[in-house]
């Protein structure tokens, strides 16, 4: 069995790669940091392959697919992504567009292309890493929250199409809350609640994927947020999220 993991050099992506390696999977790892990728290839050994790519660039996304398309990928892990903190009118436009291209466009392209391949043999797994943010409007992280809403809704639509076809392809959307990674450092904020470990999130997400579950909500707080938000008026929920984000400063 062989998996492609994006954003594999740190955080959840690295933890997923470690977990899959322990399960005996062959790996193709991609990320921007070639030095770290080389270290991971040396650590994993065996049939591990790497490809350095910046998936915020569309041509780089297709480069990764072309590298993998004839390698009989069984599992696609769309993990690469980041967030930007700040008021919408103040955040840097180019950085924001780059984030959207990574969080949405790259995931969209890879999901579509590998799903077409999986359909030819009616087998395969897709794990799309979203966030509990994808269930809400997120003032002060507006574009990030919106991008994760996209991931959840796209994945949900694909899940329903596959279910109607009685397909053997499985798709799961992993929606963690705060995780102990470099995510908030890149976003420029601090956690306002205690984060869980990337290793726990990886194990939980893969377990739900292989069980054929659509949602992977790896903590009680994420379950409460995901399912409790539907009973809270949007205006009140938006105000709550604003206060939560502001507390990260």
Q: Please, what is the CATH homologous superfamily?
A: NAD(P)-binding Rossmann-like Domain
How many helices in DSSP terms?
Answer: 9
Major β-sheet, in short? 7 strands, parallel
CATH class: Alpha Beta
The CATH architecture assignment turns out to be 3-Layer(aba) Sandwich
- The percent range for helix content is 40-55%
Give a written overview of the molecule:
This protein has helices at 11-22, 34-44, 58-68, 93-121, 142-164, 183-187, 198-210, 220-228, 234-246, and strands at 2-6, 26-31, 49-52, 75-78, 125-129, 170-174, 215-216. It has a single domain, classed as Rossmann fold (3-Layer(aba) Sandwich). The N and C termini lie far apart (43 Å). The longest helix is centred in the middle third of the chain and has 29 residues, at 93-121. The chain has 249 residues and is an alpha/beta fold. The protein has a seven-stranded parallel beta sheet, with helices on both faces.
Which features would summarize this protein structure in a list?
249 residues, alpha/beta, Rossmann fold, seven-stranded parallel β-sheet, 9 helices, 7 strands, 51% helix
Short note summarizing the structure:
It contains 9 helices and 7 strands. The protein is an alpha/beta fold and 249 residues long. The protein has a 7-stranded parallel β-sheet with strand order 3-2-1-4-5-6-7, sandwiched between helices.
């Amino acid at each position: 069995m062989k998996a492609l993991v994006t954003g594999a050099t740190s955080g959840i992506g690295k933890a997923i790669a470690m977990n899959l390696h322990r399960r005996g999977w062959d790996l193709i790892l991609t990320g921007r940091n070639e030095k770290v990728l080389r270290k991971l290839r040396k650590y994993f050994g065996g049939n591990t392959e790497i490809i350095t790519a910046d998936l915020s660039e569309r041509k780089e996304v297709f480069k990764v697919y072309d590298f993998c398309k004839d390698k009989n990928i069984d599992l696609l892990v769309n993990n690469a992504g980041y967030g930007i903190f700040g008021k919408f009118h103040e955040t840097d436009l180019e950085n924001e567009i780059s984030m959207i291209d990574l969080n949405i466009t790259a995931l969209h392209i890879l999901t579509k292309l590998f799903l077409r391949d999986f359909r030819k043999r009616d087998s395969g797994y897709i794990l799309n890493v979203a966030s509990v943010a994808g269930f809400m409007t997120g003032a002060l992280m507006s574009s990030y929250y919106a991008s994760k809403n996209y991931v959840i809704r796209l994945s949900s639509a694909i899940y329903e199409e596959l279910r109607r076809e009685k397909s053997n392809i499985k798709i799961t959307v992993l929606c963690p809350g705060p995780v102990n990674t470099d995510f908030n450092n890149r976003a420029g904020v601090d956690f306002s609640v205690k984060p869980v470990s990337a290793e726990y999130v990886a194990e939980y997400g893969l377990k739900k994927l292989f069980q054929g579950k659509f949602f992977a909500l790896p903590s009680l707080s994420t379950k409460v947020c995901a399912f409790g938000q539907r009973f809270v008026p949007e205006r009140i929920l938006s105000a709550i999220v604003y206060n939560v984000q502001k507390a990260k400063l």
